[in-house]
Design goal:
The protein is an alpha+beta fold. The chain has seven helices and 15 strands. The strands form three sheets. It has an eight-stranded mixed beta sheet with strand order 4-3-5-6-7-8-9-10, with helices on both faces. Strands 12-11-13-15-14 form a five-stranded mixed beta sheet, sandwiched between helices.
Length: about 270
């Protein structure tokens, strides 16, 4: 039986993600410009990132004023309820800035430090993915009705389609490119989508065999990690560790361990 609290959190997260997605999709100005930068001059924030986070935190606070927040664009509060919302209002900002469709809204709810609800809204695909801990993962999109998500059957590593992402700090990007150069002859192919949350959902939906990236923050992966795990994927960081800023790996059970081992051997977590 689903915990009533988790059901409430899911309903709120889906509503907030949908409204933020509509704002981002329908309210994008033709002259959208960079409002600020983060880790480097090419790691950008737009006015729409900021507006979407305000919309999400405002809606959630209206219904649950005692909850805490951790948001990419600065929302941070401890709260007193034991629930913390981890929010990426616009994952894939550079894609959004350029008018590319691969961007998303990611909202997760943590209870006493563990993610219990995750929602990822992908407006330009017309898709929504969600999961409740222990309750499986589901998605809606162009297909009819709500689909139960399941990752792909195990494939040999040399037949695996794997996605990754790149940091915006030049030195880190150069090392990541070296890792890709060593890895790609061992795989079917590599993709680079530009939104960690979308990539994690694509693992859950069976569109990818695996995904890895270095440099992710909690808001990048909280919702997508839960969705991938609830769809049967394995997730982690370096061997024996949880997903972290050093390294995040998500893959089908047959691909996860050899991919994780190679990434560790290649120093994918290292400068």
């Amino acid at each position: 039986m689903t915990d009533p609290l988790h059901t409430e959190l899911l309903v709120l997260a889906k509503a907030a993600a949908r409204r933020a997605g509509e704002l981002l999709r329908d309210g994008r100005p033709a002259d959208l410009a960079v409002a600020a930068t983060k880790s480097s001059p090419i790691d950008v924030v737009t006015e729409m990132d900021i507006a979407a986070e305000k919309l999400i935190t405002g809606l959630l606070s209206e219904h649950r004023p005692d909850d805490g927040f951790l948001g990419e664009e600065g929302a941070s509060s401890e709260g007193s309820s034991g629930i913390r919302w981890v929010i990426d209002p616009l994952d894939g900002t550079v894609n959004y800035l350029y008018g590319l469709p691969t961007w998303s809204v990611s909202i997760a709810a943590e209870q006493d430090g563990e993610t219990v609800v995750g929602v990822v809204e992908i407006p330009m695909r017309g898709e929504t993915y969600h999961a409740v801990r222990g309750g499986g993962a589901r998605g809606t999109g162009a297909w009819e009705g709500e689909r139960v998500l399941s990752c792909r059957p195990a494939a040999p590593l040399d037949q695996a389609l794997v996605s990754t992402g790149f940091n915006y700090v030049t030195e880190v990007r150069a090392h990541q490119a070296d890792v890709v150069q060593r890895l790609i002859p061992l795989l079917r192919d590599i993709r680079r989508g530009g939104s960690a949350a979308v990539d994690l959902c694509d693992v859950a939906a069976g569109r990818l065999d695996g995904y890895y990236e270095r440099g992710l923050h909690p808001w990048d992966l909280a919702a997508g990690d839960l969705i991938a795990r609830e769809a049967g994927a394995l997730t982690g960081g370096r061997p024996g560790e949880r997903p972290a800023r050093d390294l995040t790996v998500a893959a089908t059970p047959g691909v996860f361990e050899p991919l994780q081992r190679l990434l560790d051997d290649f120093g994918a977590w290292h400068d």
